[in-house]
Amino acid sequence: MTSAPPNAEGIAYYRSLFETCREHGMEVLVTLAQFDVPMGLVEGYGSWRSRDMITFFTRYAKTCFEEFGDLVKYWITFNEINIILHSPFSGAGLAFQEGENQKQVTYQAAHHVLVASALTVKMIHEMLPEAQVGCMIAGGSFYPYTSKPEDVWQSMLDDHDNTFFIDVQARGYYPSYMKSLLKSKGVDAIEMAEGDEEILKNTVDFVSFSYYASRTSAHNLDELVANEGNVVKSAKHPYLPTSKWGWVIGPLGLRITMNQLYDRYQKPLFLVENGLGAEDVVEADGSINDDYRIDYFRDHIKAMADGIEDGVPLMGFIAWGVIDLVAASTGQMTKRYGMIYVDKNNDGSGTFNRSKKKSFDWYKQVIASNGVNL
Description:
The protein is α/β, with parallel strands linked by helices. The protein is built from eleven helices and twelve strands. The strands form four sheets. The protein has a six-stranded parallel β-sheet with strand order 1-2-3-5-9-10, covered by helices on one side. The longest helix has 26 residues, at 102-127. The model has no long low-confidence stretch (mean pLDDT 95).
């Protein structure tokens, strides 16, 4: 299985897709891995707990560069790389055995992912010198729950756990706080092969991130009402509204996140996911009046523009998503993000017919005006 040639039909499909995008004047951004470790590698190798995955991934990446390098200028190695800590199976295909130190396995697997990412960055710089490659984090600033020093300290610790991946990918080495972070998690030192430190020096060209909601840190989180809506557990924010699924709606947090990430890394940013999951109602005349989604996007695009005004270089904005699909965090169709409605239910039934929501034409004018006409 691992030595099989690339799937010719799959390559043809994506080449046709990228060519069609080019014909319509669309620039393509490709993420190489987005929560999709093949089950054969999960069952046969334990996924990223095995160092063999580095070889498999870089071979796959090389194939993509060879086949699509003339059509794709912008690449991302791993989607929301920090989610491995919060949802190990969806983030990195990790399944645990009874009695093992799950944190030890997770952080070791994270190291293998980081080495694979750095080797891929090196490869793309050599094979496609005109291309740019970035990393990606599930973004969102951590507010302290109160002004108590303990809550402020916890917000810093949570931020460290969230961003050390990008510290490595953007700076080329593990941060100084890594030893104490691992100790606090009950994790022994990460095993490194000879040459890993040199490999990690291959840093990305830009830092991309998703932003859906901010988070709130508390030193006594177990004693508080928690916001369980996201895979990143945090305290319920006392001042901000939430979606039906408990995601905090706080556009100013986007501006804060942009400033924090740029201050930290001094590399161009790319906001590659932003959107609102909500239940949409199809009216008798077939219309879908999702003004709440329009309001969400409008407020966040304004916050993004404020961040740019602050001096943060932002390469672009991508809405999640244009078309309804299964929500990764809940496995539901009823948690809809799209501007195009898909007639499909949680149980898989439905006609699969597509129709425009009110947000479709609104976002069309936003794109046409480059964010000026909101």
